[in-house]
Amino acid sequence: MGNLVSLIFRSGASRPRILFLVTQDPKSIRPEWPYYQNWMLPSIVKDRGGDVDILCWRDPSMNGYTVSQYDVVSFLWCNNYHNHPIEFPNFLRNTLIPAQKLKPDIHIMNDPEVALWNTDKHYLLGLAKAGFGIPQTAFLDLRQYNISSLLAHIGSIAGSRPQVLKPAISGSAKMTHWLENPRSPSSNDLDFLETALSQGMDGDLILQEYQKTISDGEYSLIFINDEYVHTILKTPQSGEFRCQGEFGGSVKEIAKNDVPKAALETGHGIMAHLRKKFPPKILRDGSVRAKLVYARIDGIMKDGHFLLMEVEAIEPHLWFESGAGARGLDEFNTHKTSHEKWIEPYNDLVKPMSFPQTLTHTHVVVSWKLEAQSTLLE
What we know:
Helix content: 25-40%
Strand order of the largest sheet: 15-14-9-10-11-16
Order of helices and strands: HEHEHEHEHHEHEEHEEEEHEEEEHHEHH
Structural class: alpha+beta
Oligomer: single chain
Number of strands: 16
Number of helices: 13
Radius of gyration: 21 Å
Shape: globular
């Protein structure tokens, strides 16, 4: 099983300094589901003997020298970075890359080169060119259109086939819109497009053909340290095309034997492709340092093939609270009691129920387990 926390402790320091980057004021964070995904990691790392700090990457005092004082830097608490589509890439270029130059053996997970690639969904075109299937997808620079020319262009691409519209830089279905018939837009469709034209959008507008099989669920295949870990199936509620919990989606863990063979093969193929695209670094002592430590590959099945929807390689929810994920956390902890502490409340989180029901059932149980972590944010 891929062991993320063990990688953190390979820094060579007797008590490694670990920085978790966040987008909001650390004091305002609620380290519990659903407010924060991967919420348990800072506490686990601290329990293992790490010296943990949680700092906002938008803090003006953050610079390359500040970051270079750490042994490991993690994005896995960096929720909502995509709300800052200019500032975040600038932070990667102007702060994290200089920190690497100041301290070549600092381990930033994932590497800023990977993060820069993953911030904009244009990467889908590169993966399609490499032979991986994606839905029919077009990127439109809204600065080139008015409402009439935009509608004409969308119609020429999509015909009357339903489409999903969304920004190239986004997350959690932000600014995502269902366009049922591009050649006969509704007033709601026109309002969305006129707003996008007048107010702008984070990156280009993605025009993506709607896939009916999303109703069967979207598979999230999770890879850590070059290994497949587990799969989560996210299913939209009836009549909805978005599978996020905010829109009534449900989640359940899928046993490896129940994951479609084409999904696993494609997931492994994408990881192999990305490892070649982002080859590991060779450090001064001759050791090898992976640039791509973790990734979540999301996609759907269509006619026996796996269609890639996105790759999450910055701050994906890695679902450590699922059954297989909790067993992985057992490797991260020194004592069995730590495993028991984490796995028990997670059993309910992977039942095929909606997020509101899951939250209601487990919120109190999970919250009290995390009291120790709250001290990290004070």
